[in-house]
Write a structure and sequence with these properties.
- The complex is a heterodimer of chains A (about 575) and B (about 350).
- By secondary structure, chain A is mainly alpha-helical.
- Helices cover about 65% and strands about 5% of the residues of chain A.
- Chain A has a 5-stranded antiparallel sheet, with no helix packed on it.
- Chain B has about 350 residues and is an all-alpha fold.
- Chain B has one domain (about 5-345).
- In chain B, α1 (about 5-25) packs antiparallel against α7 (about 190-215), α2 (about 30-55) crosses α12 and α8 (about 215-225) packs across α10.
- Chain B is globular.
- The two termini of chain B are about 25 Å apart.
- The chains are: A mainly alpha (about 575), B mainly alpha (about 350).
- Chains A and B meet through α16, α21 and α23 of A and α5, α6, α9, α11 and α13 of B.
- Chain A: It is found in: Cell membrane.
- Chain A: Belongs to the binding-protein-dependent transport system permease family. LivHM subfamily.
Chain lengths: ~575, ~350
Amino acid sequence: MKISLSFQQVGSGTNGKQTGIPPARELLQNRYTHAAKAMAGLLLLCTLLLLQQVAAAQDSATIYTTQVLSPSHDSVRTQAIGRLAALRIPATFPLLMAINDKKLYLLDHKAVTIDAKPTGEGTYRLYTLYPDNKLLTNSSGQPLLLPLSALQTVDIPRGDRLQLADIAPLLNLFSNDAQKRILAYSQLKNTGDTATLRILQAALAKESNADALRTGKDVLYAARLYSAGNATNAKAYIDSIGDNWSDNAPVLLRNYAKNNAFDKEVASYAAAKAVSLEKRYDQLQRVQNFFSGLSLGSILILIALGLSIVYGLAGIINMAHGEFLMIGAYTTYCTQLLFTNVLGIPQTDLFFLAALPISFVVAGAMGLVLERLVIRHLYAKPLESLLATWGVSLILIQTARLLFGDLTAVKTPQLLSGGWQVSPHLTLPYNRIFIIVLTLLMVLFTYLMLYRSRLGLQIRAVTQNRQMSACLGIETRRVAAITFFIGSGLAGLAGCAITLIGNVVPDMGQTYIVDSFLVVVTGGVGKLAGTIFSGLGIGFFTKISESFFQAVYGKVFILVFIMLFMQYKPKGLFPDKGRIAED
Amino acid sequence: MRTKTNPLYYILFIAFFAILLPAGYLSGFLSVNTISVWGRYFCFAIAALGIDLIWGYTGILSMCQAFFFCLGSYGIAMHLLLKKTVAAGAVLPDFMAWNKIETLPFFWQPFHSFGWSLVLCLLIPALFAFVVGFVLFRSRIKGVYMAIITQALTLAMWLIFLRNETNLGGTNGLTDFNTILGYNLSSSSVKLGLYMISFAVLCAAYFACYYITHSKFGKVLQAIRDSESRISYAAYKVVDYKLAVFVVAALLAAVGGMLYLPQTGIITPGRMDVKASVEMVMWVALGGRGNLKGAVLGALLVNFLYSICTSLFPDSWLFILGFLFVITVLYFDKGFMGLVESIRQRLANTRFKTPQTTL
């Protein structure tokens, strides 16, 4: 590898000022000023010379860049690329990156590169390469989108590109793709090479992605920390690492404290920092658990609402209720197929919006069919209905397996992918937020239906006393059928929501059915408030006990808890007041 | 019992399974596998008798019989595995060595001795049933609530047995045994012996249950089924009766499990998942609940059907089972025995039928 004279001098200059490193917060300022300040005490003349050399390096970069783009001869380009690779001037890295990735194009005689992936219409966003690396915009400030055909491809021969092999890991720091940059940053871990750090700093100065910035800063601070010359600086870097708080930070600090600490005090400082970071992380983890408990509870509520109302109203234990969840999920899957394959609406979130009502109606309709064929013969015979509907659930599962195979997945709508990043270590996924909101709406809907509508009045009347309601002219069978429709529909809706967080498999209903029955039992049959409370309670309890024990023991724990709870409240959380003889 | 049972049916039943099948095997018509398979069905039938006692006669739908069945199986399996390990000169069974466990867990220790294993196989399920039953019956949990809670219990236990840390073999269960009390499990004479023992135990269990249901105790059980409040007003301690029958049912399931293990040579948590526990109840429902003959026949028939259907058309077994569930519950409330009964009443004149063994 060729190393030019100017580079060596800049390198020695930075080596010379090692002791004078400022705290990390200011590190991203122009390093040349720092270099010059450090040198000033030693040799003013040398500083002037150095600045001259830097300017010269920039000039030569411009010259070489021009030579790469419009070479007078192939050999000139080869030489220019070689020089640029050896010079390692950060400003030229985007260009070199584009060469290495074979994504160098010309637009109006200016070098540009493109995004890794095209947009929906097959066009690309464009970035300038030298002297600055920016997203190209059109006159109205929107990103400029062009198809490949509008660009002039610049072919760089393989031999020329091979000259970049040595600096390839560094090039990725300037990639358009944030994931690649994160990877590149993390690959620089444990590097102590000042020249590399210089480039890292340059890359960080123009970093726009928060995750990448955090990873990069972590690497940089760690390197600075290991080469820190005194305790104050070391502590400052430890603070910086703590403030930056990457995933790796506690491990890094702990390793530092164990092996390379400057002195005992710094070591204990680093260790304490690591502990406090972990503690804060645990707290956030708890918030995260609370949140997933909330979303699990929401799903349980959605399923248990239907179960509870139907059981209270008609004395039916519907073991096939979980299968309506499965039907809802498969309806969502079919809607997706319909939208993408048959109607040809690609890449939109529309299908999910449509799937919500469709899955409600389809699952509800299946519920009606089941009610007509099986359930209506079993009113007020809970144990018999339990066995018969178990048989139905076997049939439904096997049908789904024959129709769809064992595993299918619904694509999460783009609107709901990602999450709300409350802090670096606490992300609340949008899909779970969506499920919670959906549950809220459905609970509201159920409440209005039960307590603010004529149908609700009838449902409550039949739940209380079937014969009496019939005497007063309520068509109890029709009310039961409508209730069954709504209950199954709610399960279908839950199934549609579950596609956001899991796969669609034929026996997906079975995983939730026992839990949701526990919700019904704990909440009390036919009680809206009881269902909500016990659903949330069981959801939270599951997630919280999962963080203490393992998932399995959490489940056992909940069961024991419910059994003890039933000692006090055998009729659930909100039992009916009054005395009703049983037989 | 509503009708007097003709002793001829018992004799036919016993003659068929105790003489005809073994004779068929000895004369070479039947393979030893067929014998062994029927031996397993007998074990299921023993457990089904327990379910009939608690569900058919007492009206408590317990969904954790499959778990008690597995407790019995696991106990014997632990004993057999330890015997094999010791014979091979090792200290720990293979799967524990793979899981990097250094010493034998304390609850494995007593299973070195066959006698202790037998005692524990019965004691643990009985104790478990006692504690669970006490807690549940005391707070007057019954009907659907009982079914759901016992089901959840089975689910929780299934999850625990699936884990590797519990040192019970995890998902793979316990398998690969070679001898029981020094006899080689793979030899056909041992298989025939186990078949005969299972059949003898089934007959004994049947007559014990017959005795129970026809005693005063059994009458109280049926009274609890028909009207729990009234029998408690009549100063019977319902909780005690329920608890007793729950423990008896658990014991029967465990005995079935103990005999089941040496004949299959493997026990996995899959035997006690939600599906298995509902299926066990379904044997009784299909055969005819509240009828001991029905329970035995239901277990034998469903399992026989299962082995036929899964080999002939594997995809449709769940359909068949599902339809059987639905149709039985909807139309044949009394199960297969009830069907036979009603047919017999219609054809009151024709007496020569052998309903037990034909379908």
